[in-house]
Design a protein that fits this description.
Helix content: 10-25%
Number of strands: 10
Oligomer: single chain
Shape: globular
Order of helices and strands: EEEEEEEHEEEHH
Strand order of the largest sheet: 7-4-9-8
Length: 181
Amino acid sequence: MKLFEETIEREDIFSGRVVKLHRDRVLLENGKTSIREVIDHPGGVSVAVLTEENELLFVRQFRYPYHEVVLELPAGKLEPGEDPFLAVQREQMEETGTTGKNYVYLGEVYPTPGYTSEILRLWACRAESFGESRPDEGEFLEVERIPAEKALDMVMQGEIKDAKTQIGILKVSRLLAEGKL
């Protein structure tokens, strides 16, 4: 097996403020064709901010697609051409009012590889300074501190549903256990 698909034709369907949608006709390795619908997204960043007491900083915000309040690690969308590390520092300041030190890169995540090109880049850090959050216009959130051990329990009990947040907590928990953060 080659595990490859060749794009034969592309049709741009929608271009919005955050995402674009296109439909491709692809040639499969068995010679047949199929359709792929793809949401193009500029990508994003997320950061697990730890206090000296090993509390993680979270944000609670209403997420329209689910029509509920979701508990998440601070995160945001990349602007065109923006450096991901600078973006994570910007989002951290905007959403939590903190600056960080000793950043550790936790890698990339493909949140939904079946239909979107979005890539999330994850970091962890220790909080260095605390101030007031400054969310974007139209962004409403509450900052909450939760001990890292409790956050891990919340992941394992299904109380935290956001994928990037689950991954960030799991990776931070391992780093803490290994004395690397």
